[in-house]
Each structure stands twice: as structure tokens, then as C-alpha cells.
Amino acid sequence: QVQLVESGGGLVQPGGSLRLSCVASGSDFENAVMGWYRQAPGKQRELVAHISLGGTTNYADSVKGRFTISRDNAKNTVYLQMNSVKPEDTAVYYCNKRMTVGGVMYDYWGQGTQVTVSS
After folding, report:
1. Which of 55, 56, 66, 119 is most deeply packed, by most CB within 10 A?
2. Cβ–Cβ < 8 Å for 34, 4
3. HEC profile for 59-92?
4. pLDDT per residue over 33-72, tens digit each?
5. Residues whose CB falls within 8 Å of the CB of residue 84, separated by 6 or more in sequence, listed in order
6. CB within 8 Å of 91: residues ≥ 6 apart
7. Distance between first and last Cα of the chain
């Protein structure tokens, strides 16, 4: 049973910073692509960033230059450093673990952590 537990969300002022963490259970973390997604009220869930097994990163255009995704395989943890946040970053942020086994892709999700950007 894969479990992903996010933490670090909260209320932050525009221009401020926040760091999200996601701890994954299991022994195969280093073989997974890890990502952060977000969903704002009334909108579809969207990709924020993901990081490959080798550390290659990819970001949504809306967060490039402001957010940084990183991973610590020894701690089974992925992080999202959020800088210069904007009100439009307000959303529930979800951690994602993606495994490909025998050509089949498996997605696992955390419960989400709320990020609210407001003065």
C-alpha cells in the first residue's frame, strides 16, 4: 500500500515563501517520477512540477522561476519550494508518485495540502 503524506501548506502573503514536503511509503521511491499538482476551486487539477528518477525537472509555465522541486531519495521525500507566491497560486496541492511496471503506469496521490495566498 503506497501512502503519500503532504505537509507544509498554510496561509502566506503575496510575495512570500512556503515549502511543501511529501513523504512516500515503500522501498521503490528512487524508481518513481515524483510530482506536485494543484487544484483550485472550480478548476481542473494541473501539473505544477515533476522530477524524474535522474533529477530532471519540468515546470508549468506559471511557476517557472518561482517554484523549485527537489527530491531526497534517502528520505523518500519530495519538496516544493514556493517563492514569490501570488494569489493565483491558491489551491490544494497534491503529491504524486508515478511508477511504470511492465509497461503499465500507476499513479498514487496524497490527500492534499491547502495553500492560500492572501494579504
Report:
1. 66
2. no
3. ECCCCCCCEEEEEEHHHCEEEEEECCCCHHHCEE
4. 999 999 999 999 999 999 998 899 999 999 999 999 999 9
5. 15, 17, 66
6. 38, 39, 40, 43, 114, 115
7. 40
Work out whether the CA dihedral 71, 19, 15, 39 comes out positive or negative.
positive
Reduced to 3 states, what is the DSSP secondary structure of residue 37? strand
What mean pLDDT value characterizes the chain? 95
C-alpha cell at 90: 491558491
Spatial separation of the C-alpha atoms in residues 34 and 57, rounded to whole Å:
10
Integer-rounded Cα Rg, in Å, for the chain is 14
- Is a pLDDT exceeding 80 seen at residue 27? no
Strand partners, 17: none
Count Cβ atoms below 10 Å from residue 35 Cβ, excluding itself. Answer: 23
Strand (E) or helix (H) holding 38: strand 33-39
